[in-house]
Amino acid sequence: MVKRKIIFFSGSRAEYYIQSPILRQFQNSKKFDSYFIISGSHTSKSFGKTINFVKRDKIKIYRKIIIEITSNKNFGLGNYVLKLQKEITKIFLNLKPDLIFLTSDRFETLSVALVAHLLNIPIIHLEGGDVTEGGTLDDNSRHAITKLASLHLVTNYDSEKRVLRLGEEKNRIVNIGFPPLSKIIKNKLYSKSQIEKKINLNIDGKLIIFTYHPVPNELNSQREIFDAISFLSKKGFKFIITYPNFDPGYKNILKKIESLKHHKNVYVIKNLGQKLYFSLLNYIGKNNKGLCIGNSSSGIKETMFFNCKVINLGTRQKSRFKTKNIYECRINKKKIINLFYNIINKNIDYSKLKNPYFSSKKIQNLDRKIYKKLKNLDFKIKKITY
Hints:
This protein is α/β, with parallel strands linked by helices.
């Protein structure tokens, strides 16, 4: 049997977190030699050096591409992409991989996809077909990667239909559910006392997890969000605030986070890590001890599994499939506060509802399934279906 070479790339904590159950499977595969390349916020001190979470998971890293972004202006991001493409090209030409595995919708992931496309290396794309209409870079990047990819691993039925509408062949689309949810079952989560020890914080009372990523058309209204947090924290509600992605506009959010850092009930943790994050969601949801606020896709996809309420802010997750634990809210201080008080004490059991993102078995033996597809499907020549 000829082992195939596959390269996994990750430029952010979110990408790694989504792909990690599959990456681990491929690193233990008898059918593939896998190579994991990281860049972006993984190696940045400003974003908590999430490479440490990768190392803690005992995932082998083939190459670190360290490129510091010195500015959040367009030139800084453009310069980062150019340097990344230069380094990725060298690695691809040296390794000569059979496949590239890419996740989600990051702009740096699209830049890697373009290099693979130019070098005629087939792409496997995880989480295509999702939608985030709120004026971010994400939608354009995700759909562009879909059109460059040869195999699509989607996370829900709506996304499967959308990839079909984009003109991709049905036999190239595999609905595997949301990979991190399959990992939850295997992971023993932290207890309340273990959580408190990890973050050095008493979590009695109502606890709110806040993550807000930059959205270009919401820059002028961000102050409303942080004014609402300031108001609620002064009323005794505890906030755990995590850092945003380093999309254009992230430094404005970091400044606002810094302005809240010294409030009595505000605790800033750059990155929680997957197990601690899941443990907090589990504690909050199981005991009706709080909720999540923000605009992260994690709030959409994982929280229902833990019976956790979410206030989804603004337009970033517009049109993404949502479950009944998600409460939509415009970015307005008064509306955020009113909705918060309306739902904070509601005790609703969402766990009995069907979660469209959950599938415990679909990623099992994924390496074998993809190896088989490599033999039976021409990865380099796609038919046009539109």
